[in-house]
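Fold tokens
===========
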Amino acid sequence: MYTEYEKDILSILSKFKLDISDNDSFKEKLNLMQGIEEKYNLFLPESYKCFLLLCNNGFFSDAVSFNIENSEFILNELYCLTGNNNLTAQIETFLFRMPQNLIPIGERPNGDQVCIGVKEETNEGVFLWYHENELEARKMIGEINSDTDINSYYENIEIISNSFLNFLNSLKINDKIAEEVDLNDVEIWLDEDLLND
């Protein structure tokens, strides 16, 4: 079904040490994807469906980054169909906070979302959605007219790639960032009141 993408995606999953699904879960995952498409009236791009089918856990153990022009961005994880940060839970979290032709598919450390186009005008494009510049927040402080519709608001969205597969291929392990963070140097301070509870 998604065989044209399978080899490339399996190679990418292996490169980043992501958990690969076994064949036994495919039927359940196909049903979950169909349910998402029907419930939210959208079409998941075929390459993204292949990723969802093949990946069980999209949390990166290494520092992984992507570029937009000359800027580098860290990516924490790509959402999968199961687990705590599953795709459905993330769609629900960001429903009505971003245009309906985008869904969140991954998260940066600061809460910005990597999104994919799921409607005709943005189909398969991959975008970065900045949470600091959300429409509702700008409406509340009077920066934007309260009649502005979320589906026409793109001031906090930037294109990363024209396809999901190109986006995956652009990801790289960022050794420089990994070297900068030495967990042995991290100190954790707990308030005494917290410890007494």
About this structure: DSSP finds eight helices and nine strands in the chain. Residues 59-196 form one domain. The helical segments are 3-15, 26-40, 46-54, 87-94, 135-140, 164-170, 175-180, 192-196.
